[in-house]
Amino acid sequence: MVVGVKDKNEVRTDAAPRVDRDLLKLGFDFGTNTSVIVYGGGGGDEKSELVYSVVGYAKPGLLPGILPKGKTVLYGEEALRNRRYLDLKWPMEKGIISNLAISKDFVTHLRSLVDPSGQRPIWGVVGCPANASTEDLSSLRQASAHAFAKILIVPEPFLAAMGLRDESRLSDNGYIDPTRNSLIVDIGAGTTDFCMVQGYYPGKDEQISVAHAGNDIDMALRSAIQKRYPDCDISSVSITRLKEENSFVGTPKRKVIVTTAVRGKPRELDITDAVRAACESITEDIVKNIEALIHRCDTDWVEQMLGNIIFTGGGSLIGGLQEFIQARLQEGGYVAARVQKVPDYKRLVARGAYKVSQQVRDDQWQIPV
Questions:
Q1: 356 pLDDT more than 50
Q2: pLDDT tens figures, 120-129
Q3: Domain CATH for 310
Q4: Helices 236-246 & 272-280, crossing angle to 10 degrees?
């Protein structure tokens, strides 16, 4: 399967490419919240690395021995655990690189998890938001250049469809191939991406990306809590985890009661309405952009497309979201609409990228910069 390049002349390649025996081809999902690498571990097995997309730099004047093993830079969960001693920095914002230097540090760290020696040549298929700008793609290339000798950048919703695809069932009559006539909705932390996948690499008109996603839910939730409980200040990290543990839309199945310290004293807060309002704040955009792509679909395939709307990304875990959006679409006249969510969304894009890395020709890989 050939993806990602329509014009061979657009790809920079070596004059006489030589594939090293130690060459490692992998898939990389550089996420606003969590980043994932999927690669082959030998013998046909698959390995993965999941790391929160955060870098922590030691605060000035920190005493020796406070941070583990004398480190001055920590990554992912280790950085979050030690956050009181660190200046936390997020390399991605709204699905794009917000700080190139921090991004280079982070991607270099991820590479070290795959190849601690730093000696293996690595080629990576890298996911990007739907319809990413030329400037954003350039930043992604520059960050990747610190870790990968060659890359191929592919839209994340397409990679999600590839990750979901079960190649062993392609000959089954009843199997619905997600890479044919599906509408992928990838609700991440920084962006929500929409893509019609119709058996080939999607064009610009088949993709939509909006910067309205999980982080906006976090901000709306924090604002609502502070409005109702002005003497309560919950950190951004805690807000994200509250959302992840309690998110829902529609009628609540239970009240969301959390205990937090207010001026040093424990206090129970009822944040049910705040959680629901924050989560529902992204639903209008989701419905509107699904409708926009359906209007662009060939009329012969609209019903199949509507019957195969697939939600992925962290936002797909919002309780009741699939049913909520499906009902809204059906109320709007799209009676054939069927919305489902995927299992193991965290690895899906990187797994699809890994599959692509094993299928594309060597002359399609690009030198990052």
A1: yes
A2: 999 999 999 8
A3: 3.30.420.40
A4: 90
Same domain for 193 and 305? yes
Calpha distance 210→194 (Å, rounded): 9
Alpha helices per DSSP H over the chain: 76-81, 100-114, 134-144, 156-164, 214-228, 236-246, 272-280, 283-296, 302-306, 321-331, 345-359
236, 218 Cβ separation under 8 angstroms: yes
Least confident of 18-27, 140-149, 211-220: 18-27
Distant-in-sequence, close-in-space partners of 204: CB < 8 Å, separation ≥ 6: 131
Single out the residue of 253, 127, 238 nearest to residue 184, CA to CA.
127
Q: Is the pTM of this model over 0.85?
A: no
**One domain, residues 188 and 291:** yes
Sign of the four-CA dihedral 194, 131, 244, 106: positive
Residue at a domain's end among 280, 301, 322: 280
Same domain, 196 and 308: yes
- Which of 195, 124, 182 is closest to 156 using CA atoms? 195
- Total count of domains within the chain: 3
CA distances from 166 to 50, 155, 162, 184 (A): 22, 20, 9, 16
Residues 219 and 84 both lie in one domain: no
Positive/negative CA dihedral, 136, 137, 140, 146: negative
Helix (H, G, I), strand (E, B) or coil at 209: strand
Range(s) of the domain holding residue 63:
55-89
Q: Is position 14 within any domain?
A: no
Asked if 29 and 350 touch (Cβ cutoff 8 Å), the reply is: yes
Q: What is the pLDDT of residue 17?
A: 46
Residue 288 and residue 255 in one domain: no
Q: For residue 117, give Cα distances in angstroms to 24, 100, 133, 318, 364.
A: 13, 24, 34, 40, 27
Looking at the domain assignment, is residue 226 inside a domain? yes
Question: What amino acid occupies position 196?
Answer: M
* Residue 229, token pair as written in the block: 């409980």
* pLDDT at site 48: 93
Q: What is the pLDDT of residue 126?
A: 96
pLDDT for residue 9: 35
Residue 10 CA to residue 227 CA, distance in Å, equals 52
